[in-house]
């Protein structure tokens, strides 16, 4: 009788969901606690905005180094270090006393979160075959997108009962528990895990040479050659656009709904949740659909490229329709379709990092996420400038228009041509 395969890889996938959720909760809770912090310390909007920008600077700078750390030391150690580091500075946020200390703490918090997603990508490359990577990558992304939905209610409840400082103590403590759980549960290679049997190991190793490289020589990625690659730049550009659109929602959706659509505070709290719920659901379902297609013989390149580009096409079209809509509820409908459709692109992006990077998945995913978070640095300020100089409609139309740049970039990613293979066989990229 054939041995029944264990499911340890999916247990780790669910744990990635939890980690992504906690990471985004820790990001969003500062914004939710912001009014009380600004009142206590006398910060104006510019000062508080700079504090949040310092997070993105630290986070962006750590993307590529974080990927290299995950490749060299393994996702298990890298992610435990990352979670413990950012949880420490989450707790220290409660002890900041002025603008300078708040800025330093949040920048160091950003550095701590830097290795998280590259580390998760490295783990996925080792633990899942090509036929399962779409679903596997969707777990940590979906957890991240659920965070902005639930963070306000949880944070407000804690603040109401215990004050704003308790928020950071609570979430910091949760982070340390998650780090401890990850250390106990995770292993860098499936063959090292006591709860993985031979049947599951066979499934993992199907079309996945990385799962067999237990003692391979640790190498630094050929970064000088990577930056000459059209594919390397293309995956970065499309993710800059994708994250730009997402951060417009994260930064301005509540204010837009109240100022431009005249929703009350209570109504806004409900309406703003719909796009994020849609994004989380689409990200998860896209993973299952893309894996089903690859498992039934469809080209990896076509699945990734079509999902990635179509997500941006639908998002841009729906955002344009939201901009010209004159009915608030119809506007929310199109905004929900717009952000929700990015789930196709997010999923394809991270799965493509596995396809392109192989043993250098950490470096490729770190580069892509660096580009994406540069979009996060630009989006809030540029959107505010356009909305102030013109109006909210112009800001949304501009955001919709730049989505087309990402669509074009997707057809240059070519996920079926690994960067490592190009390095080894031709020494150049195209």
What layout of secondary structure does this protein have?
Layout: H1 8-41, H2 45-61, H3 63-73, H4 75-93, H5 99-113, H6 116-127, H7 133-162, H8 164-185, H9 198-205, H10 223-226, H11 230-259, H12 265-271, H13 273-295, H14 300-324, H15 328-357, H16 361-389, H17 392-410, H18 419-425
Helix pairs in contact: 1-6, 1-7, 1-8, 2-5, 2-16, 3-4, 3-6, 3-16, 4-5, 4-6, 4-8, 6-7, 6-15, 6-16, 7-8, 7-13, 7-15, 11-15, 11-16, 11-17, 13-14, 13-15, 14-15, 14-17, 15-16, 16-17
- In CATH, what is the homologous superfamily of the largest domain? MFS general substrate transporter like domains
β-strand number: 0
Order of helices and strands: HHHHHHHHHHHHHHHHHH
Provide the CATH architecture of the largest domain: Up-down Bundle
Low-confidence stretches: 422-430
Average pLDDT figure: 86
Proportion in helices: over 70%
Oligomer: single chain
N-end to C-end Cα span: 48 Å
For the CA atoms, what is the radius of gyration?
A: 21 Å
> Which overall shape is indicated by the principal axes computed on the Cα atoms?
globular
What is the name of the CATH topology of the largest domain? Growth Hormone, Chain: A
The structural domain count equals 2
Short overview:
The chain is mainly α and 430 residues long.
Q: What tags apply to this protein structure?
A:
430 residues, Growth Hormone, Chain: A, 2 domains
Structure description:
With 430 residues, this protein is an all-alpha fold. Mean pLDDT is 86; it is low at 422-430. Helices cover 80% and strands 0% of the residues. It has helices at residues 8-41, 45-61, 63-73, 75-93, 99-113, 116-127, 133-162, 164-185, 198-205, 223-226, 230-259, 265-271, 273-295, 300-324, 328-357, 361-389, 392-410, 419-425. The chain is built from 18 helices and no strands. The chain has two domains: 1-209, MFS general substrate transporter like domains (Growth Hormone, Chain: A), CATH 1.20.1250; 219-430, Growth Hormone, Chain: A, CATH 1.20.1250.20. Helix 11 (230-259) packs antiparallel against helix 15 (328-357) and helix 11 (230-259) packs antiparallel against helix 17.
């Amino acid at each position: 009788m054939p041995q029944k395969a264990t499911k340890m890889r999916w247990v780790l996938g669910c744990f990635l969901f939890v980690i992504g959720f906690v990471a985004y909760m820790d990001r969003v809770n500062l914004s939710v606690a912001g009014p009380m912090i600004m009142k206590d310390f006398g910060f104006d909007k510019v000062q508080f905005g700079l504090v949040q920008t310092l997070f993105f600077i630290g986070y962006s700078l750590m993307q590529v180094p974080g990927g290299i750390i995950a490749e060299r030391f393994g996702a298990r150690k890298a992610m435990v270090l990352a979670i413990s580091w950012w949880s420490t500075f989450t707790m220290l946020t409660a002890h900041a006393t002025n603008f300078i200390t708040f800025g330093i703490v949040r920048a160091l918090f950003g550095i701590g979160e830097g290795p998280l997603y590259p580390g998760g990508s490295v783990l996925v490359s080792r633990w899942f075959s090509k036929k399962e990577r779409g679903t596997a990558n969707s777990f940590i992304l979906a957890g991240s997108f659920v965070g902005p939905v639930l963070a306000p209610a949880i944070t407000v409840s804690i603040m109401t009962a215990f004050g704003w400082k308790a928020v950071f103590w609570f979430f910091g403590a949760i982070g340390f528990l998650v780090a401890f759980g990850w250390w106990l549960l995770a292993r860098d290679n499936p063959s090292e895990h006591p709860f993985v049997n031979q049947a599951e190991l066979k499934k993992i190793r199907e079309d996945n040479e990385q799962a067999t490289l237990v003692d391979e020589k640790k190498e630094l990625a050929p970064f000088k050659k990577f930056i000459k690659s059209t594919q390397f730049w293309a995956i970065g550009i499309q993710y800059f656009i994708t994250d730009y659109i997402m951060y417009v929602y994260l930064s301005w959706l509540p204010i837009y709904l109240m100022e431009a659509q005249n929703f009350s505070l209570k109504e806004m709290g409900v309406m703003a949740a719909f796009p994020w719920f849609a994004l989380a659901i689409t990200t998860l379902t896209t993973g299952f659909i893309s894996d089903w297609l690859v498992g039934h013989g469809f080209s990896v390149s076509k699945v990734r490229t079509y999902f990635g580009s179509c997500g941006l096409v639908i998002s841009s079209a729906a955002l344009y329709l939201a901009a010209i809509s004159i009915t608030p509820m119809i506007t929310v409908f199109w905004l929900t379709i717009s952000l929700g459709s990015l789930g196709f692109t997010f999923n394809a992006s991270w799965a493509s990092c596995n396809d392109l990077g192989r043993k250098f998945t950490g470096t490729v995913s770190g580069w892509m996420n660096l580009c994406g978070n540069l979009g996060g640095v630009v989006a809030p300020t540029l959107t505010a400038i356009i909305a102030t100089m013109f109006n909210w409609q112009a800001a949304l139309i501009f955001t919709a228009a730049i989505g087309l740049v990402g669509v074009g970039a997707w057809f240059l990613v070519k996920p079926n041509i690994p960067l490592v293979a190009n390095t080894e066989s031709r020494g150049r990229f195209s």
